[in-house]
Amino acid sequence: MKKYKVKVLLDKLFQEKPKIFVRFRNVNIILFVLIAIITSIGMLKAFQSMAKHISTDYAKLYTANTSQALSSYLKREIALMNKAVHSKAIIDWFADEYNYAKKIKAHEEITNLINTLLGDNVYLGINNSLNEYTVEKNCTVNDLKPLAALKQNHSEDAWYFNCIASNEDYNFNIDTDKIQKRTRLWLNYKVYQNNTFIGILSTGLEFSKAIKDFLLQADNSETRSFIIDKNGVVKIDSHFVEDDNFLDYKENIPIETIISDPKFIDIIDTYTANIKGYSKFSKPLIKSSNNSQHYITITQIGNTDWSLVTLYNSSSLFSITKLFPLFIIMLVFFITYIVVNNLANYYLILMPLKQLTNSLTRLKKHTDEQIYGVERSDEFGFISNIIQDLFIKGNYDALTGLHNRRFMEENLQVFLESISRSKGKLSVLMIDIDFFKKYNDTYGHDMGDTCLKAVAGVLTRVITRTDDIVARYGGEEFVVILPHTDKTGAEVVANKLLKSMQELNIPHENNVVEHLTVSIGITTGDVAHTQKLENYLKQADQALYMSKQTGRNKFSFLPFES
Question: Is the pTM of this model over 0.85?
Answer without folding.
Answer: no
